[in-house]
Amino acid sequence: MMKLYVLVLLLSAVSGKALVRITLNSTEIIPDGVRLTNDDGRRYIGTIELGTPGQAFTVIFDSGSSDLWVPGPKWVSTKPRQKFDSSKSSSFYYNGSDVNLYYGSGSLTGILHAETVKIGDITITNQFFVEAVRSPIGDRLREIRFDGILGLGTDAVSRTPTVWTTMMTEGKVEKNMYSIWLRPSSIEADDGGEIVFGGLVAEQFIGEHTYLDLDTTGSAPPIFPFGPISVDGLDICTANCYAAADSGPLTLPFVSI
Ligand SMILES: *[C@@H]1O[C@H](CO)[C@@H](O)[C@H](O)[C@H]1NC(C)=O
Ligand SMILES: *[C@@H]1O[C@H](CO)[C@@H](O)[C@H](O)[C@H]1NC(C)=O
């Protein structure tokens, strides 16, 4: 019995493929003082590490965009943020291309680099990321309560392979599937749910999943046919309705302020 047990452990260690579960925090996206009318203001953040040794950053896992960015030394924000220090990393690769990133709520200018990125037990190497340098004065991205954004969208809208693509090409996930479990914001902040790389976790859902093709040809986020939609007899959308598969929309809360 003992021998068998050891063998099984060894096999799974060698293959290196596991379901990787990252705890998410449900947090208000912007600092105190800006009241939002409802819970649209809450978003889900988790922690990743960049560099060797790892430097920790809180990020939104955002299926609606495809780039990874974290603040660089020159980044200006209203709250102290973690800033990436390339001089302290032995795995830093300087690329130097200028990059502009645009979100529904803001934009930033940065520099492209590559690094080792650790997400839970998964380590990927030579992953492109953007060292954020600046955003326009007054931009919402200066006020956010997390450090950066990890885009989980497709390569179609990114100039470089995404983190998720690298996880798959480096064979780091059990299945080419990730799932996000978002818990209601009434639950404790550090129990906002989980993002699971490599598959599904049975206790996080009831019933069967329905699988739909995503349209990833347009701009981010990916969309899928949805509807028709009516509320209390009022038609919201009757034909050609689409919904966005977007886990981290920054646009809505900012528009509603
Ligand atoms: C930087 O990355 C881009 C995108 O992959 C690539 O085209 C370019 O050659 C790279 N430049 C350097 C100096 O590594
Ligand atoms: C979530 O928030 C709690 C309390 O602020 C903190 O201790 C914990 O490290 C956070 N977890 C993540 C994954 O950011």
UniProtKB/TrEMBL annotation:
Peptidase A1 domain segment(s): 44-257
UniProt-listed GO biological process terms: proteolysis
InterPro entries attached to this UniProt entry: Aspartic_peptidase_A1 (IPR001461), Aspartic_peptidase_AS (IPR001969), Pepsin-like_dom (IPR034164), PEPTIDASE_A1 (IPR033121), Peptidase_aspartic_dom_sf (IPR021109)
Range of residues in the leader sequence: 1-16
CDD domains on file: pepsin_like
Spans through the membrane: none
Tagged with keyword Transferase: no
Keywords on record: Aspartyl protease, Hydrolase, Protease, Signal, Zymogen
GO MF annotations in UniProt: aspartic-type endopeptidase activity
Protein name per Swiss-Prot or TrEMBL: Peptidase A1 domain-containing protein
Source organism of this protein record: Arabis alpina (Alpine rock-cress)
